[in-house]
Amino acid sequence: FKSAQKLAVELSEQHVFTIEDAEAVFNRSEAAMKGARKILRHLGMRRNPTMDEIDLYQKWTEQWGFEPDAVVGACGETTKGSPNFAYLDKVLEGIRSRNSGERITRGQVGQQLKDDHSETARIREVLGELGISMSNVGAGVRSVYREMESACGHEVVALAAREVARSRRAHTLDNVSALL
C-alpha cells in the first residue's frame, strides 16, 4: 500500500488523472526502464537501473533529443574511466552543446566523438611542442586552442608553440596566443 500511495502521489503531481494518461506514463516509464537497462548492459553491469538512472535516460532521450541508439553509441566513450551514467551524462552533455539538430542520431554522436578525438590529438601536439603533458585536455584549454585554430589554423598554432618553446618565455598557451 505504501508503494501504491507513493505512486498515486507521483501521478497526481504529474497531473495524471485519467486511465489513458496513466497508461501513457507507465508505457513511457517502461520504455525508459528498458533503455536504461540496455545502457547498463553496454557498461558491463548486470542489474536493474535505479530511478536516478532512469531519470537520466529520460532526460537524454526526451529532453535533449538523443535517439536511443545514439545514447548506446556514446557508451564506448566511457571506457576511458569508470563507466557509469554520470560519466555518460557528461559525454552526452558535451555532444548536445555542440549539436544544433532536434534529434541527435547515432551517426551524429559518432562523428562528434571522432571530431573530439582529432581535436584532442591536435591540442596534445601543440602542448607537446611546449613540453606540457596533459592526460586530460580540459574545456579551458580547448577553448583557447579553438580560438587560435580558427584564427590561424593548426599548422600555424603548432609553429608558434615551437617558437615559444625555443624562446626564453614561459611555455604556456597564453604566450602562444600572444605570439600569434
If you had to describe this structure to a student in words, what would you say it looks like?
It is a single chain. The mean pLDDT is about 85. Helix content is about 70%, strand content about 0%. Helix 4 (about 70-75) runs parallel beside helix 6 (about 105-130) and helix 6 packs parallel to helix 8 (about 155-165). The protein has helices spanning about 1-15, 20-40, 50-65, 70-75, 85-95, 105-130, 140-150, 155-165, 175-180. With about 180 residues, the chain is mainly α. It is elongated. The chain starts with a helix and ends with a helix.
Structure keywords:
180 residues, mainly alpha, 9 helices, elongated
Layout of strands and helices, then pairs:
Blueprint: H1 2-13, H2 19-42, H3 51-63, H4 68-74, H5 85-97, H6 106-129, H7 139-152, H8 154-166, H9 173-179
Helix pairs in contact: 2-3, 4-6, 6-8, 7-8, 8-9
**Count of discrete alpha- or pi-helical segments spanning 4 or more residues:** 9
- The counted number of beta strands is 0
Roughly how much helix do the residues carry, as a percent range? over 70%
Oligomer: single chain
Shape from CA axes?
elongated
Poorly predicted sequence stretches spanning 5 or more consecutive residues: none
List the helices and strands in order. Answer: HHHHHHHHH
Structural class: mainly alpha
Overall pLDDT score: 86
Characterize the main sheet.
Answer: none
Strand content: under 5%
Brief digest:
The chain has 180 residues and is mostly helical.
